[in-house]
Amino acid sequence: MSPPLVLPGTRKGRDPERSLRRGPRRTSPEAVAANQRDRLLDGFVRTVAQVGYARTRVSDICQAAGVTRPVFYELFKGKEDAFLAAHRHGTSQVFAAMEEARARAADWPGQVLAGLGTLLAILAEAPAFAAMAIVEIDAVGPAGREAREHLLTRFRDYFTDLPDRDLPISEEELVDTVVGGVYSSIYRRIAADRTAELPALLPALAFSVLAPFLGPERAAARLVDPLPATSAFPACLNPEP
Predict the structure, then answer these.
(1) How far is residue 163's CA from residue 112's CA, in Å, rounded to a whole number?
(2) Mean per-residue pLDDT over the chain, rounded
(3) Which of 48, 65, 110, 138 makes an SS bond possible with 43, Cβ 3.0 to 4.6 Å?
(4) In terms of residue numbers, what domain contains 62?
């Protein structure tokens, strides 16, 4: 069984339970740094979700994490570096969960349903991370755009096992259009502070992905099958209010 997902921003950086206790048994420097880094990432994501990347200050991040400013600069080069670290760490966990769900599907349409269902459920249960990773990435500049392009490229992996079908346009261009449409739909819900509604998008998004390659009738028929039980996926998260 896979370990629980603990995305950046799903815990409080200043949680007393996460503080390093003093005592005769000293904690290793590596463990201290890992603890402080995790707390800073949580504080960073929560702060960005609340006030936006542009208005987030290093002092705000440190305050939210209960970590000093000198320690922040020991672990990160600056605000942009912290953003990219949180984005990489969180998205790698999301994709791992999607791949696990995808591996259980019997065919390509099932993989699409399982992967999308997992993605939507995870983001719905981690609204601070969703806001940071999907919406606030626009404010980061060139490094943010590069990270987003890498993210979209990973989504294209879902189209490596496409069914054979004569298409009137380039398959690559069609895949780019489909991936962009899914991303845009997710973006709009999160930007409108309607992240909790994301799982309800599954039928429409799945149909939009399947129809160009299966045809509308076959795509609709797959939606008649039981959709992934998205309520099961958030159980792998460890969110805190």
Answers:
(1) 13
(2) 87
(3) 65
(4) 16-78
Structure tokens at 66: 């209960």
The token pair that represents 70 in the structure block: 């000198």
Q: Which residues have a Cβ under 8 Å from the Cβ of 199 and sit 6 or more positions away?
A: 117, 120, 121, 124, 230, 231
C-alpha–C-alpha distance, residues 202 and 215, integer Å:
18
110 and 48 share one domain:
no
187 Cβ contact list (under 8 Å, min separation 6): 134, 135
3-state DSSP assignment of residue 13: coil
- Give dist(CA 95, CA 198) in Å, integer: 17
Are 191 and 152 contained in the same domain? Answer: yes
Q: First vs last Cα of the chain: how many Å apart?
A: 26
Q: Is residue 97 part of a domain?
A: yes
Q: Model-level pTM? A: 0.87
The reported pLDDT for the residue numbered 3 is: 65
On whether residue 11 sits in a domain, the answer given is no
Q: Is residue 1 part of a domain?
A: no
d(CA 6, CA 87): 13
The band of 238, judged by pLDDT with boundaries at 50, 70 and 90, is very low
For position 74, which CATH number holds?
1.10.10.60
Q: What is the pLDDT of residues 4-62, one digit of tens each?
A: 789 999 988 776 666 666 555 577 888 888 999 999 999 999 999 999 999 999 999 99
